[in-house]
Design goal:
This protein has eleven helices and 15 strands. By secondary structure, it is α/β, with parallel strands linked by helices. Helix 1 packs across helix 7. Helix 1 links the parallel strand 1 and strand 2. The relative contact order is 0.12. It binds NADP nicotinamide-adenine-dinucleotide phosphate and guanosine-5'-diphosphate-alpha-D-mannose. The site of guanosine-5'-diphosphate-alpha-D-mannose (GDD) has 24 residues, from helix 3 and helix 6.
Length: 348
């Protein structure tokens, strides 16, 4: 049966993918966007004709409550956050307000509206703080190492608290890192790498500056994870679910595959370490155990790490090659041999 879904953070990676998926499945989607002076819809540009976009801010209870009350959604998915861990060290109060208190504003809006809206909070594996290569699950201890992770713990526990106190359908999707070609924010490390590769191939830059390339993450494919989020909403009762692949790779592993796939060879020729990009406290490794989602939601990740990396490289290269084809003057300094070679071998 068709449902109405209210999605915050619809201009971001997950919110836009979830909107695509909900529309594909025949649901009605309403997206909350922040007012901004340049009207940039980000990843939601293609959704304008299919989705009702309403201005609101999760820091502002009145706006979220009014939208909840007027739209009467079946599902409310909170994809909004100040989601960059590094930035949270520079803007800790702002991050706490958006990523932490913002969740209470969503939950209170549902509670005060009196509707039986099902709520899903996008929690994060960062909350665990990481314990070597031990696979983390819903029962693992939370030990946040950043203002972002601390705020995520607040939102996570608030969701559980509203579930227990008010018998609300309020679930947490505890996701490990997941990426979407062309939609991942440019300052997350995976997209930073694939955009830099495109720029190196175009002859615009020679090096890529990174911080801690030994950090290990459990990287999955965002589209797979959005299917899991929908399954959590459709599950018979509210609960908390880990979404992960169960495998960790280092940032340098990502670079190795990405640069080689682009035909650039050894990444060490291009990657330079900038100590300024190290975080005051970084999670060394994260690996997830998704057994519960597998057992109860019948969810498993489909796209593996190597394919994810290659798809991200292809996506950013393809965009640049299309721009060059449309306007050759845009490519005065590019390296036509490399682009042609890559284009023939990988994008055909
Ligand atoms: P993202 O691309 O950074 O998107 C964040 C979204 O939140 C954007 O649409 C942004 O809008 C919106 N937003 C920020 N502040 C807001 C506010 N005050 N009011 C309303 N909207 C606001 O993040 P993502 O990767 O899609 O992640 C989605 C959610 O999952 C986040 O909560 C993130 O913390 C969590 N998560 C992500 C991952 C991952 O690997 N991607 C893993 C675990 C958890 P603007 O476009 O206006 O900035
Ligand atoms: N962003 C960034 N930029 N990270 C770098 C860089 C760099 O130049 N160099 C090394 N890294 C390292 C970071 O220190 C971190 O250890 C790792 O690469 C991944 O960084 P990000 O891509 O920024 O992601 P994240 O793991 O900190 O956070 C992402 O995943 C979380 C779930 O585990 C975000 O999507 C969070 O919102 C999400 O909760």
């Amino acid at each position: 049966m068709e449902k109405t879904a209210l999605i915050t953070g619809i201009t971001g990676q997950d919110g836009s993918l979830l909107a695509d998926l909900m529309l594909e499945r025949g649901h009605k989607v309403i997206g909350i966007i922040r007012r901004n002076s340049s009207s940039n819809l980000g990843n939601a540009s293609h959704l304008q004709s299919d989705v009702d976009l309403i201005e609101g801010d999760i820091q502002d209870l009145s706006s979220i409550y009014r939208i909840q009350k007027s739209t009467r959604p079946d599902y409310f998915v909170n994809c909004a956050a100040q989601s960059h861990v590094g930035t949270s060290f520079d803007q800790p109060l702002y991050t706490s307000m958006v990523t932490g208190i913002g969740v209470i504003n969503c939950l209170e809006s549902i509670r005060m509206s009196g509707y039986h809206t099902k709520f899903l909070q996008l929690s994060s594996s960062e909350m665990f703080g990481g314990r070597g290569e031990e696979a983390l699950n819903e029962e693992s201890v939370l030990a946040p190492r950043s203002p972002y992770a601390t705020a995520k713990c607040f939102g996570h526990w608030a969701t559980i608290n509203y579930r227990e106190s008010y018998k609300m359908f309020a679930s947490n999707a505890i996701s490990f890192n997941h990426e979407a070609p062309g939609r991942r924010g440019p300052n997350f490390v995976t997209r930073k790498i694939t955009l830099a590769i495109a720029s190196i191939l175009m002859g615009e830059s020679e090096h890529l500056y990174l911080g801690n390339i030994d950090a290990r993450r459990d990287w999955g494919y965002a589209e797979d994870y959005c299917k899991g989020f929908l399954a959590a909403l459709e599950y018979k009762e509210p609960d908390d679910f880990v979404f992960a692949t169960g495998e960790a790779h280092s940032v340098s592993d990502f670079c190795k595959i990405a640069f080689a796939h682009a035909g650039l060879g050894d990444y060490k020729r291009y990657v330079k370490i900038d100590p300024m990009l190290y975080r005051p406290n970084d999670v060394p490794a994260l690996v997830g155990d998704y057994s519960k989602a597998k057992e109860l939601l019948n969810w498993t990740p489909e796209v593996d790490f190597e394919i994810l990396v290659k798809r991200m490289v292809n996506s950013d290269l393809k965009d640049r090659i299309e721009i060059v084809r449309a306007d050759p003057h845009d490519a005065t300094d590019n390296n036509p041999d490399m682009i042609t070679k890559f284009s023939q071998s990988n994008l055909a």
